Amino acid sequence: MPQISIIIPVYEEEESLPELQAWIVKVMETKGLSYEVIYVDDGSKDNSWQVIKDLSLRDANVKAIRFIRNYGKSAALNVGFSKAAGEVVVTMDADLQDSPEEIPELYRMITEEGFDLVSGWKRKRHDPMSKTIPSRLFNGVTRFISGIKLHDFNCGLKAYSNKVVKNIDIYGEMHRYIPLIAKWNGFGKIGEKEVAHSPRKYGTTKFGIERFVNGFLDLISVSFVNRYRKNPMHFFGSMGSLSFMTGFAITVWLIYEKISGLRNGLHVREITDQPLFFLALVALIVGVQLFLTGFMAEMMTSNSTHKSDYNISDEINCEA
């Protein structure tokens, strides 16, 4: 088993790949670390796949995976995680902006300091303000919601214990929230290391400003799914109870007001003529619907829960 698995998602980075591979080899051989490099070609339309194939022919430590089309960075990382055999798994981008020189120290922090995950922090970034300012806002909101004190959630340079990557599943654009996903799966020792950030040498960035908008939506999604995946009734039931009780309280008040007015000989409007009646009716219906949604979600959860859904840290004398 290699000490380090390096996973590199690739999307149209043919120019940088030979230089990146040579840099990785130099660092690993200098430090005497055993390693494997897993390139995941995410449906590149340029010559990236041919370059990766050539690298794999020259170096037995190189593994190559190719998607038939572009699925996104999360899919590339997820497949890479499934193939990684190293004690420590390191992810980095293919554009030469992440330095392989950081890998030995990331490895040490995982193996010696006992971190489950160490995220890079690009304190000094070589990016335009159109990227750095939204990024700071995005990271600030993510820190507040997740409770994880990281400066740069979106940094591609991260290191993981092997057991972390084998027990998490990422999809869509959830690669930004791997620390949060890891925390919800019981891997709470999360560290941070300041890393170098180099200017882009080849090509252009593949991400636009829309990633920050999508990022906030993904944050809400991953927070909700990880919090209520096992007990959806806790969410839908609470919201349903609040809605139903609000509607019920308004209804009781309207009936009380009607009866009280009649007893005192006052002229009162019909209950059905009052706007509050329709508000109460909507609240009651929504409350019942939320309850039914919660019950259905609980039934689906109970039917889809498998033993593999529960992560086991260690086992002693548990052979069948």
UniProtKB/TrEMBL annotation:
Coiled coil: none
Annotated Pfam families: Glycos_transf_2 (PF00535)
Keyword Membrane: yes
GO cellular component terms listed in the entry, alphabetical order: plasma membrane
Keyword Transmembrane helix: yes
Matches recorded under CDD domains: DPM1_like_bac
Membrane-spanning ranges: 235-256, 276-297
GO annotation, biological process: lipopolysaccharide biosynthetic process
Record domain Glycosyltransferase 2-like: where: 5-167
Keywords: Cell membrane, Glycosyltransferase, Lipopolysaccharide biosynthesis, Membrane, Transferase, Transmembrane, Transmembrane helix
Domain of life: Bacteria
GO molecular function, one term: undecaprenyl-phosphate 4-deoxy-4-formamido-L-arabinose transferase activity
Protein name: Glycosyl transferase
Organism of origin: Cyclobacterium qasimii
